[in-house]
Structure formats: structure tokens, C-alpha cells
Amino acid sequence: MQIDFECSGGFANLRLIYRADTEELSPEIQEEILKLVESSGFFELQPSEVAPTSAGPPDVFFYRLSLSSGGRKKSLSFNDVTVPSSLHPLLRLLRKLALERHQQGK
Fold first, then answer.
1. Rounded distance between C-alpha atoms, residue 85 and residue 70, angstroms
2. Interval 70-85: pLDDT, tens
3. For residues 68 and 82, what is the distance between their CA atoms, to the nearest angstrom?
4. What does the pLDDT read at residue 12?
5. pLDDT in tens, 27-71
6. Within 13 Å of residue 88, how many CA atoms lie on the same side as its CB?
7. What is the pLDDT of residue 102?
8. Which of 23, 40, 46, 52 has CA 20 to 30 A from 64's CA?
9. How does 17-40 read in b/e, with b if 16+ C-beta sit within 10 Å?
10. pLDDT of residue 40
11. 13 three-state secondary structure
């Protein structure tokens, strides 16, 4: 699965990017990502269900997540206000992975 994740905003105007192919990740991380994608129903979500309707509060985070796997491809954009609760565990993991890469200077 190809992952393209961006998170930006908040008080510090943080910008995190995480791009990966799950085939190149450790088996544990690969399994966790695939499980979270499946349980979130990501590929079944419709853009109208998550699209930000306004800028939101000044400390809101904005997200863009694109996933591609086995002929399925979907890109969604949302913010802290419009993100479905089913995506919270996946976003938490992707933010953690992005932050680790950012701290390593990659």
C-alpha cells in the first residue's frame, strides 16, 4: 500500500509529511497500518463526509491522506472538526511516524 500523508496547522503551524510503501516497513508497522486502514473504512468514506466546511478554530489541524492499494486509490482532506472518529487511530499512528521522520531529519 502506498501512503501519502500530510498534517499541518495547530498553534505552532506544524507541517508533517509521511510517505511510505508498506512493503518497505517493518512487519509490525505494516500489519498495524493495514489493520487500521481496514477498521477505519477509509476506502468507503465519501469526500463529502469529511470535507472541511470552514477554516475552524485557529489551532485546528488539517490533514490530507492518500492511500493506494491493489487498484484502489483514494485521497481525502479533512480537519480536526470533520475527521470521522474511525480515522483517529490511523491518524495517530501516521502523525507519530511522520514526527519520528521529521526528528530524524528525513
1. 25
2. 899 999 988 888 888 9
3. 22
4. 76
5. 999 999 999 999 999 999 987 666 665 566 778 889 999 999 989
6. 6
7. 84
8. 23
9. ebebebeebeeeebebbeebbeeb
10. 95
11. coil
Give the pLDDT confidence score for residue 90 in this predicted structure. Answer: 97
Task: Reduce the DSSP state of residue 6 to 3 states and report it.
Answer: strand
Length of the chain: 106
**The three three-digit cell numbers of residue 3, written as one number:** 501512503
Per-residue model confidence (pLDDT) at position 103: 87
Residues forming beta bridges with residue 3, ordered by sequence position: 20, 67
> If you write DSSP's letter for every residue of 29-97 in order, what string do you get?
HHHHHHHHHHHHTGGG--HHHH--SS--STT-EEEEEEEEETTEEEEEEEETTT--GGGHHHHHHHHHH
Q: How far is the first Cα of the chain from the last one, in angstroms, to the nearest whole number? A: 20
What type of residue sits at position 65? Answer: L
Cell of 30: 505494516
